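Throughout our pipeline, every protein is held as a single compact record rather than as scattered files. Such a record has a labelled line for the sequence and another for the backbone structure tokens. This encoding replaces a full spatial description with a residue-level series of whole-number codes. For reference, a complete record is included directly beneath this paragraph.
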Amino acid sequence: MSSAGQSGDADTLADRWRAARPPVVGLHLDSAACSRQSLAVLDAVAKHGLHESEVGGYVAAEAATPVLDAGRAAAATLFGMPDAEVVFTTGSLHALDLLLGSWPADRRTLACLPGEYGPNLAVMEAYGFEVRTLPTLADGRLALDDAAFDLAENPPEFVHLTPVASHRGVVQPLAMAAQLCRELGLPLVVDAAQALGQIDCAVGADVTYSSSRKWIAGPRGVGVLAVTSALVSQLTPRLPAPPWAADSSVAQQLGFGEANVAARVGFSVALGEHLAYGPELIRARLAEVGDTARTLLADVDGWAVVEE
């Protein structure tokens, strides 16, 4: 595509993005932490809240089933996990907590990067996991060849990878890591909180979890956990199914508990909007903006450009 064509696509995307949202107050540069929600998302959340008031929360939640199912399907598509069991959570850390708390007690070893996100490490420690560090290059990127040797020699129960972390500027080779894990027969767990919407996460990992509020531009306080059917059958939720739901699946048991259904509805709408915009187009535009930012910052004292 010519540069003129790329510029036209970017202009169209930017115009559509702005038109779908309330006018910004000031200058918003915080989408990596919490994007601005669209009018459609805000409307969906408000309408669900109104419906809860009209018919009661449980009846309203039942009526929202098609929207929530569509949200789960959209998440599975973006993760490249079409047959996964998808559970809504309150966020990424809650998703990891649910996963590790359900992991077999006699198989608690994992491998991750030495620069893993601190709260993730805290959850791993809380559940008694032995954490082994994966080898990296000088810039903190996964050293694939060395990792292949280490993982083959001393395989953990699974590999945990955060391809884009909120505290580091390095993008990890997610697709190649996924291929390596498949070749070694090791489950791959992906923390896509920062990555979803920014880089391609459709690598067919065994587990992927993420948040609503970042590049997907959904409400705060909601996230998602996707687990392949082969792996979910090995999990044992900490809390047993109640007598009135004894036949519940593992995924359903993981989803038990109080929930902000309105936020889940909004997240589902945001996922649909993301797919409608075109994930490839969004990723390309974010990469273009990143290139521009790196060019501008390269000559500024105190800044170091770590990506090309």
Notes: Residues 279-297 form the longest helix (19 residues). The first strand starts at residue 85 and ends at 89. The domain at 46-282 is CATH 3.40.640.10 (Aspartate Aminotransferase; domain 2). The chain has one domain: 46-282.
